[in-house]
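From the pipeline queue, job 12 of 40. The input is one protein chain; the requested action is below.

Action: predict structure.
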Amino acid sequence: MGSLGPGTKSITITGGITFDEVEEAYYQYAAGLLEGGVDLLVLETQQDTLNVKASLLGIQRAQADLDCDIPVGLSATIETSSTMLAGQDIEALYHTISGFGLAFLGLNCATGPEAMTDHLRALAAISRFPVSVWANAGLPDENGHYAESPDAFATVVGRFAREGWLNIAGGCCGTTPQHIRILGRAVQNVQPRPLHSIQPCPALAGNEALVLTADNRPVFIGERTNAIGSRQFKRLIEEGKFSEAADIGRQQQQKGAMALDLCCSSPDRDELSDFLNVLKSLLRKVHLPLFIDTTDIAVVEAALKNIVGKPAINSVNLEDGGLRLIQIAKLAKRYGAALVCGLIDDDPVQGMAITLTRKLNVAGKIYRILKDELSISDTDIIFDPLTFPAGSGDPAYLGAAQATIDGIRHLKERYPHCPTLLGISNVSFGLPPAGRETLNSVFLYMASKAGLDYAIVNTQGLRRYPTIPPHEIELAARLLLTGSSQAIADFNAFYRTCKVENDTEEWEHLPIEEQISRAIVEARRTNLQHNLRELLKRNKPLEIINGPLLRGMDEVGRLFAENRLIIAEVLESAEVMKAAVDYLRQFMPPTESTAVKGKVLLATVKGDVHDIGKNLVDMILSNNGFEVINLGIKVAPEKLIEEFHRHQPDIIGLSGLLVRSAHQMAATAEDLKTAEINVPLLVGGAALSEKFTSAHIAPVYNGRVFYAAEAMKGLALANQILEKAIPSSPSPSPSPSASASASASASPHAKWIATDVPEPPDYDAHILREIGVDKVLPYVNESMLYGRHLGTKNIMKRLNDAADGKMNKLRCEVNAVIEEAVGEGIIAPKAIYRWFEAHPDGESIIIRHNDASHIKEVRFSFPRQQARGEISAVDWLRPPELGGDNVCLFVVASGLDTGRKAASLRQEGRLLASHILQAVALEIAEAAAEWLHKRIRAEWGFADPPELTVPQILHAKYRGARLSFGYPACPQIEDQKPLFELLQPEQIGVELTESYMMQPESAVSAVVFHHPKAKHYAV
């Protein structure tokens, strides 16, 4: 027998040595013994489970290198404290190393046999290995003498054998040949512990074991030690306060957590370093098992080398087809860990398993891989059937909560030894804070009844199910089981009125003026009219507007400027402001205006029908003390001049979306100058820039011109203008030189880049009058919707932050508007598309339209880029002498014109919903264009590869391109007219205005090119 002792260094206790160093030392240790011809290896007197794992891996490597397979036994020491020196008790030790193949497992040294009684009893009850004991002859005295006699020693160990706890017995420190002789007689006729098959049970371990039983399900996993889900935890890590971050784990433990989910993921930091720093402190403060929550394989392996017990890895799935699943599973098997398996696969349409059928199918695929390829134990396969937001209103998630609950029940039936897990709080994302814990508790109760084993929850905020009133349980159950818009509305309405306020007492003791100001800042309507009535007893309505109300809106503007509010929250505050002003208006003389700052004349310039940005400016200014005259869209300069003389505004605001609109602003400014109008001019729009404003608009206007990149910037500028605190206007920049213009006019001919030219399926018109919204929604560009239109800052980071309350709330607002618009038929995507023969001609492409009755040629202009490669779309078409080519034209619309509905919502005081509706309509039109373009590629013969994701599609990582007239690559908006003549999109309700803009505004037209080199560019 080759004995391998504990060594002089412990990873956990003494430090000064790493997991890899221990593994290497025992590799060499074992290799020497194996080469010496031993028949058995025994790791004995082990005091640190991390050392044990490293040592066993070293032994495995030595056996593999020497091509031998001899038994390995393990014997640990349990101190009088009832744990190993490093802190684990015997059950935790067993469950930590139960995945390793051992010849036996037992105890030696440290104490006399009497003190081992409870530990051996516990080990014998659970161990699938033979159990050994070789105890000391009692504890040594002050002189190092072991006083327990051979008879006393044999009596205790003999009793262990007779109890059926032992397979191997012997002696350690202080025992003599006489001890062993008498022990031999004591156990001579005793049957060894039966090696019957003990069914493995699901278990994890920290310093103590966590074994799943019928009595402790579901196990609560604390969710607050997660940098994605807890802002406090994330902040402490960013500040380098790792010990304080670990304290959050201790608080979760104190509040009932039985395990902790640990995640230190952050795109801006070194995740591995943060994880290990927090882990070091956390392991000193808690004794719970850990869930390693990361997508980084390096972090997973580093964690496994530093965690004493048996953790779980959260999580793996089949999103990439199974490669990462196998990589992580091999690490789990090597180091001894369980796997949380999310029910997600590589299906390009519905990767996340929402329905019961999909859940069971994906679970089956994962199970077969883990069992057939890696022989992972059932008890170490933890299925996560996924939790989806119940109150989002997303049609894709209707019935998802019920499917998850059913999924748990069916998974337990199919795989009875595989645990299940859910992240509970996902179900309540975006709902009122006062209702979230109620919904979480009801969902947890339902899932538990179905057989849930692990629940990731905030144990500090979980509401006890028995304490929830029946009517609240009913509200939550309806929302979970139906997901209907009525259930969502009822739930939100109830909990908005029951909003939990931590500062209620402080609020009630504030002066009324301060309460009113804070109501604006916090978008709170509670007691608003009551407070206004009280204030009217001593103040005039206009004094209230000019005082606490505008102070509140000023604070809103300041918080937005500091990135502490998003546009959606600004609009919510504006809604409260509007409600307050509307209430006060009844107490004002008919001739008195509520505007106290000034008057602004707003217009979308001639030729442009886009007004979402202008309407947002209208709402912001109107509720910040300005009187706004909104002239609408397609406003000609003469109309603007007429309305100026009628209203005498302090400021004029011009808006427009397209490149052409920017030039129209310059022309409008010149006409205003001719009319001797010189009030400050605010300009804004997607195609506009500070540089263009300075170079082309400011030089042709008599007054000051200011560029407002977004609505809140426009408010700030308007305030500064009227307070006489505005900086000087932008300095004119020189116009482009004549030589530059001459250079621009000289452009090379088409430069065909040879490639395969696919044939279109036909040349017929394809009309899609009903495109399901559910098909289009996955292609909505959330970065544009929430970032550009709804003004959310740091959008890419916040989109992936599941714990961002503001973001989740805004998502719910958006989903509610979509559901309402779909229900009223306002959002109903439709499309028309058709292929045409085409070939290049100079800087144009010629479209041939052959409808059997006549052949018509149409010319589209694609000016050549003057820098960065001299690109033109004409280069993507095969010349006629080589066989010609084809393009596809399309028009899509998200549905009806939203202008009337948006105006109605504004009149109702639903300012945020009004803005969201227009933003959603525009982005659903773009999403429908992406969806249709994907379909066109497939029908044209070059379908996207299966692995191409929606985010990649939104970044145009496919073959070909679609270009729209009026935008940088083809700025000649007049080409919309021949496109409409060819397609006749009036058949789907889209018309062309006299200025070549599409009506409704939420429509997209495009020319689709197939060439692999095709891309977006600017002339």
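Job complete. The mean pLDDT is 87.
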